[in-house]
Amino acid sequence: MTRRADEDELAAREAEALDRAAAARDADRDADRVVSPLADADDRVIETALRPKRLADFVGQQRVRDQLSLVLESAVRRGRPPDHVLLSGPPGLGKTTIAMIIAAELGMPMRITSGPAIERSGDLAAVLSTLTEGEVVFIDEIHRLARPAEEMLYLAMEDFRVDVVVGKGPGATAIPLDIAPFTLVGATTRSGLLPAPLRDRFGFTAHMDFYQPAELEIIIRRSAGLLGVTLRDEGAAELAGRSRGTPRIANRLLRRVRDYAEVKGNGVVDRAVARAALELYEVDEQGLDRLDRAVLEALIRRYGGGPVGLSTLAVLVGEEAVTVEVVAEPFLVRRGLLARTPRGRVATPAAWEHLGLTPPEGNTGPGGLTGPGMATLFD
Ligand code: ADP
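That is the input. Now the predicted structure with adenosine-5'-diphosphate docked in place:
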């Protein structure tokens, strides 16, 4: 496989795992993780206040911003709604924020819904048939839209028309209904799951990437300003490095550290306070939490780096296999600390080093993996 294909494969697997993590969160498995990229109830409340309102205030994602600003400006000049926009990328990177910015830049109201919320095509027809001209419709998790609703959307996106079916069985008739021209903004963590006809109807597609620490620092400083937190630059840097490239996590860590600074210190977040607070919350320098480290510890200290089967690993860390797989592993794989191989999970040399250990000499398999039998693992 080429490097690019490798990365795509990795991204797809991470996206799939995150989808399942969302289900795990619903089942309360992921609920109190301070490093989860998924929003909890507290996040939802506070995020409204922290969202940048205009494109100029949106940090990072330079290419997306540049392209989008062109699309929006030319639409405003022509006085017509812009192309439909598809935003793809992992949770917590700013898809909802961008959707809101699009509406704000166009000076238009926005309707928010999501794939799972639209159970029947009638639900979608109710939204579309009551739009005013130029309105922005945001459908989060658009890959989870039910099939009939998806088909209704094709026609709506292309011809600004919906067919409302009246009656049942052989007597059913479709009544075409014109709807106001609108802009659809779809967001998905799994663009690979979108059927081609739907994907093709978006005139503009943007992929959001994880953020660099320097960008996260800016985001954290901005949020601190809005929350009234006194934050020193080194404090911001300390938080940025542990935020897993994700603004949502950065904002959450900031709030936890602020609480700590207020209770244990004088309210100022400097490097020492940030470190002490994150130690208390068990988030280490790379953003790994207790479960992430337990997985690596079990692999390395009990099995010399692996390979170890998922179910054994889960027993060792006292969690269910699905929790290890969907909650802990994706980030460890992305960070290059863990590899999934046909014979089980393997700790990479970077994982040994992260735990302050020296990886064993020799026995190095493809990709620099170590562990008993690694050399023959991919034969
Ligand atoms: P998504 O829809 O991709 O899950 P959101 O748009 O809800 O992500 O963003 C999560 C949080 O992160 C929000 O509070 C938002 O303010 C913040 N955020 C995301 N991207 C940025 C950014 N580029 N600049 C500033 N804040 C951001």
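The chain is about 50% helix and 15% strand.
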